[in-house]
Amino acid sequence: MAGTPDGQQDDLAGTLKRTEVQRADSSIAGRVIVQVLTEIPEGVESGWHTHPGEEVGYIMAGTVEMRIRDRDTLLLHTGDGFLIPPDTPHNARDLGPGTGRMLSTYIVSPDRPLASFTDG
C-alpha cells in the first residue's frame, strides 16, 4: 500500500486497497512522482481527502463519481482521465459494476503524507 517515504501509511491506506507502482525523483525541485493503483469496492467512498501536489488519474475499470470542492461532480467511466489540483479536497465513490480500479500519478512534496483526510 502507498505510504510516505519513511514507510508510514497515509490516511487512505486503511480505507482502500492502494498499491504503489513506482516512486522517483521529479525534475521539478522539491517534488517526487508517485504512481499508485487504487481499488475501490463497489459502493465505497474514499472519503474527502487531499494530496500535497497534482493527481493525474485514469479509470481502468468501473464507474467513479468524483466530487471535487468548488467544481462540478465528474462521472468517470473506464478509459476516462481526470486531474485534481494540489491540496484540493475530493472524494471518489465507485458506482460499479464491481471493484473500480484507477491508476493515479502524483507530483507531490516528499515531506508530507501522500493523502490526508479533510472536510469536504
Rough outline? globular
Would you give the CATH topology? Jelly Rolls
Instruction: Give the CATH architecture.
Output: Sandwich
Name the beta content range: over 45%
CATH class descriptor name: Mainly Beta
* The CATH superfamily title: Jelly Rolls
Radius of gyration: 13 Å
Distance between the termini: 24 Å
Derived structural class: mainly beta
Helical proportion, percent range: under 10%
Query: What ranges have pLDDT less than 50 throughout 5 or more consecutive residues?
Result: 1-8
Largest sheet, described in full?
6 strands, antiparallel
Structure description:
It is a single chain. The chain is mainly beta and 120 residues long. It has a single domain (11-117), classed as Jelly Rolls (Sandwich), CATH 2.60.120. 0% of the residues lie in helices and 54% in strands. Strands 1, 2, 4, 5, 6 and 7 form a six-stranded antiparallel β-sheet that branches. Strands 3-8 form a two-stranded antiparallel ribbon.
Name its key features.
120 residues, mainly beta, Jelly Rolls, six-stranded antiparallel beta sheet, two-stranded antiparallel sheet, disordered N terminus
Short description:
The protein is mainly β and 120 residues long.
Helix and strand arrangement:
Blueprint: E1 17-25, E2 32-40, E3 49-50, E4 53-68, E5 74-77, E6 81-84, E7 90-108, E8 116-117
Antiparallel strand pairs: 1-2, 2-7, 3-8, 4-5, 4-6, 4-7
